[in-house]
Amino acid sequence: MTTTHTALDKLKTSREKINVRIQRLEALEKERRRKNETRRKFLIGDVVLRDARKNKTMQTLIAKVAPHLTRASDRRLFGLDKLSDEETPSEE
Description:
Shape: elongated
Distance between the termini: 57 Å
Structural class: mainly alpha
Strand content: under 5%
Order of helices and strands: HHH
């Protein structure tokens, strides 16, 4: 009976270690995907900004982006006025 109990304990310990390794690998994969997505956004944004500067369409681009900028610091970055309370989208 003790041998079975010891074998069971060893298996449970192994399972716990495996679960920890799985969680660690899943977290690493999630972080890798997030970094890749951020990199894609950066590269696309860089191309769009260069094109807007080259073609002198920066104001058109800012006008297109403006409705989506709700944080005061983001709007300030583009030289936009702060949204009034009526214009600020509610967080539900």
